[in-house]
Amino acid sequence: xxxxxxLHKGQTGIVMLVENGGKMYLPEHFKENDIEEVKAIVEQxxxxxxxxxxxxxxxxxxxxxxxxxxxxIGHIAFANSMHENLKDGCKALFIFRAENSYIxxxxxxxKPQHHKHVPTWxxxxxxxxxxxxxKHSEKEKIAAVGLLTQxxxxxxxxxxxxxxxxxxKDYMKTMxxxxxxxxxxxxxxxxxSKLSQNxxxxxxxxxxxxxxxxxxxxxxxxxxxxxxx
Length: 229
Known about the structure:
The chain is of the alpha+beta class. It has one domain: Electron Transport, Fmn-binding Protein, Chain A (Pnp Oxidase, Chain A, Roll). It is built from seven helices and eight strands. It has helices spanning 35-44, 82-85, 111-114, 138-157, 169-177, 201-213, 217-227, and strands spanning 2-6, 15-19, 47-54, 57-68, 71-77, 90-103, 120-135, 179-194. The protein has a six-stranded antiparallel barrel. A two-stranded antiparallel ribbon has the order 1-2. Helix 6 runs antiparallel to helix 7 (217-227). Residues 1-6 and 8-15 have low confidence and may be disordered.
């Protein structure tokens, strides 16, 4: 059985399919079906892990990506042999990981009653399966750098955001010659929020409060939303 999740309501009208279970261990109660939450994870934690098969081994790299419609966009260093080792259109997996935390049994109010608790780990992750393409034209590389810098510069510098035109043209051209653009076509999406949903309400609430104490605001916020359902 497939659960449909509409990623964007814009002109594309793209609908992604999330398989129950899929390639990631994904119990029903940990499945993240809120597409706004999924998009927030990717935007707030853009440093992705990219994994692709190469022969009998794997190619694994880490770089920030930006999600637009049914694609992820980014770039890597030209010196990174990834664009030489992998063919255009090869299958790959992108992993985005949000906040995470060790969960101690000592935090559960029900522990003194029966001591039937063990440690665990809470986290949020997004897996995107699809096809990877490398972009070498200057126009495509400028577009990738522009998208990434506009988003993150506005976030950290506001009206004083750095712009590509701030750098000398010849210097910027040299920098662009040193990168390769990346375009990842998303074919399948899986998202998981493992946030103590399988615990008793009193224990869930205690963990939620602990996340707040530990300044893990993202986990605390999501647990509050889940508790309201």
